[in-house]
Structure formats: C-alpha cells, structure tokens
Amino acid sequence: MSAPTIGFIGAGNMATSLIGGMLQQNFKASRIMASDHSVEQRDKLARQFGIRTSADNTELARECDVLVLAVKPQGMQAVCRALPSERKDGQLVISIAAGISCQSLGQWLGEGTALVRCMPNTPSLRRQGVSGLFATEQVNEGQKQLAESILNAVGISLWLSEEAQIDAVTAVSGSGPAYFFYLIEAMTAAGEQLGLPRETAERLTLFTALGAADMAVHSDVDAAELRRRVSSPGGTTEQAINSFARDGFPEIIARGMQAAASRGAELSRELA
Ligand SMILES: NC(=O)C1=CN([C@@H]2O[C@H](COP(=O)(O)OP(=O)(O)OC[C@H]3O[C@@H](n4cnc5c(N)ncnc54)[C@H](OP(=O)(O)O)[C@@H]3O)[C@@H](O)[C@H]2O)C=CC1
Ligand SMILES: O=C(O)[C@@H]1CCC=N1
C-alpha cells in the first residue's frame, strides 16, 4: 500500500510546525499538501518544504487520506461546511482547533466522519512536541495508528479517554510553551537587572531551561525532589523559592491554567 496523503487546511503556525517536524521523520514532501487562502502563506510553505499547495480546500478533501483542520477555531465552521460531502474514501479528519467539539465537527462534516480531536503544540517543529488525542467511535484501529504515526513523528502523543480532557491538555501543553517562553523572558530581564549583559542572561536562562527539562524527563525522582537537591539549606536557591512561594507562585500558575481551560470550554459553547 502506498503512503497516505496528508492535507493541511490552514497553513499557519501550527501546520508549519507539524509539517516541518514530519519532513524530518520520513514523511515525504510529495505526500503532504497544504491549502490556505493567503498566497504568501502558500508560497512560504511551498518554498520552505517543497510540498504541494492549493487555494482550494475542496481539492485536499477529495485527494487526501488524512485531512488536518488547522484554521483558527472561529473559522472552523465555515471551512467544514464548505467542504464537499463526497471526500476521499476512508478519510480520517484530524482537528487541532482549541475548543471545537467532535459534536460540532460531526454536524458540520457529516455524522459518519471518522474524527480525531488533537491538541498538539509548537515544539513539534523541533520534533519535541506533545499531543493529546481523542478519537470518536467512527475511528477504526488503522486510522488511530495513522493519527498516532503523524503526531509521534513530531514528538509524543497520548490518547485521552474523554473528550473534555482536551481542555485540560490545552491548558497544560497546548498553551504551555508560551508559559515557559514567558518565564524565559522574565528570567532574562531579571538577569539583566542583576548586572549581566542581555545576551549572557538569555543564554544562561535558555540552557538552564533546556538542562532542567532534560534532567527532569530522564530522572527517576520527581521535580520536587530535583528542586530540593538544588536548594542547599541556608543557601541561595532556598531564598528564591521562599520568595516565589510567599508571592503565591503555585496559585498564580493554577489560576492562569484554569483560565486557559475555561476558555477552551467557553469556545466549545460559543462556536457550536
Ligand atoms: N499556535 C499554537 O500553538 C497552537 C494552535 N492550535 C490550534 O491550531 C489552529 C491553528 O492555529 P495557528 O496555526 O496558530 O493559526 P494561524 O492563524 O497561524 O493559521 C491558520 C491559517 O489558516 C488560514 N485560513 C483561515 N481561513 C481559511 C480558509 N477558509 N481556508 C484556508 N485557510 C484558511 C489563515 O489565513 P489568514 O491568517 O489569512 O486568515 C492562516 O494562515 C487553531 O485552531 C488553534 O486553536 C493548537 C495547538 C497549538
Ligand atoms: O492560544 C490558543 O488558543 C492556541 C491553542 C493552544 C495554543 N494556542
């Protein structure tokens, strides 16, 4: 059997991250297509990745074994309703939109559609992504494996037992890279205030983030224990951690993530 064709509708940030990662992992450019209404965006992807692009979403719907819906949530209904009901036989549709439920997608695309809802993240571009996946009952085992092979090509993926968990995944890992970038920005600025040149503060911060994440991923003890091992009694780290705790760091993070998850649920209602 020949390799499946994968079509991305919406060729923006997230599609670029996924396609970039897939091409580094044995997916052939000749089997990937992308459509976008922006000619600049189409040209950019065609140049960057050597994939076929189109201005016509219908062309992808008719030709591709897998359709990845990668437009903004607010544009999803119009995109789905404009797709033809006669699409490629056995097609799997993967939606990566935050807050668009399988129920809405089923209504817009046709109830028999095999649908996977997925929440990836932008480090997929570096093949360091993590995705949560939820399959509707129309999805067969082969299609599940196909979805997994796409997302595993750009990082790791985890199946969810309930669709509602997607909002939590969005709050943790979908939006998560932005929280770490925010911390990097804040630590770099604080390093500068402490007298370091900006570039030095930035490199120290970036490599500390990379080292800490790598160490935590490969450790057999949890993050709290790793933190304790850095914090010598009466030393410097303890002072920083105590100051963070006094200022409510865990509560600040929990409130922010609750806001992200609530927005996901709100979008599902608003855009149904
Ligand atoms: N960015 C992220 O980190 C993540 C995003 N997501 C989800 O991925 C989806 C895409 O997000 P993102 O990549 O950031 O968004 P972008 O705006 O970067 O990409 C969407 C692209 O789709 C194009 N588009 C809009 N309408 C149509 C249409 N009718 N036909 C074809 N193309 C169209 C847009 O063009 P134009 O701009 O001209 O309208 C744009 O180029 C969202 O639903 C988001 O929830 C999920 C996980 C992480
Ligand atoms: O901010 C957003 O809505 C999207 C979903 C997760 C990351 N970006």
Any overview of this molecule?
- The chain is of the alpha/beta class.
- The protein folds into 2 domains: 6-163, Rossmann fold (3-Layer(aba) Sandwich), CATH 3.40.50; 176-268, ProC C-terminal domain-like (ProC C-terminal domain-like fold).
- It is built from 12 helices and 8 strands.
- The chain has helices at residues 13-23, 39-49, 57-63, 73-82, 102-109, 141-152, 165-174, 176-193, 198-218, 223-230, 236-246, 249-270; strands spanning 6-9, 32-35, 52-54, 66-69, 92-95, 114-119, 129-135, 155-159.
- The protein has an 8-stranded mixed beta sheet with strand order 3-2-1-4-5-6-7-8, sandwiched between helices.
- Helix 4 (73-82) runs parallel beside helix 5 and helix 8 crosses helix 9.
- The longest helix has 22 residues, at 249-270.
- The protein is elongated.
- The two termini are 38 Å apart.
- The relative contact order is 0.10.
- Residues 9-15, 35-38, 41, 57, 70-73, 75, 79, 96-98, 119-122, 174 line the site of NADPH dihydro-nicotinamide-adenine-dinucleotide phosphate.
Would you spell out the secondary-structure blueprint of this structure?
Elements: E1 6-9, H1 13-23, E2 32-35, H2 39-49, E3 52-54, H3 57-63, E4 66-69, H4 73-82, E5 92-95, H5 102-109, E6 114-119, E7 129-135, H6 141-152, E8 155-159, H7 165-174, H8 176-193, H9 198-218, H10 223-230, H11 236-246, H12 249-270
Parallel strand pairs: 1-2, 1-4, 2-3, 4-5, 5-6, 7-8
Antiparallel strand pairs: 6-7
The site of NADPH dihydro-nicotinamide-adenine-dinucleotide phosphate has 27 residues, from α1 and α4.
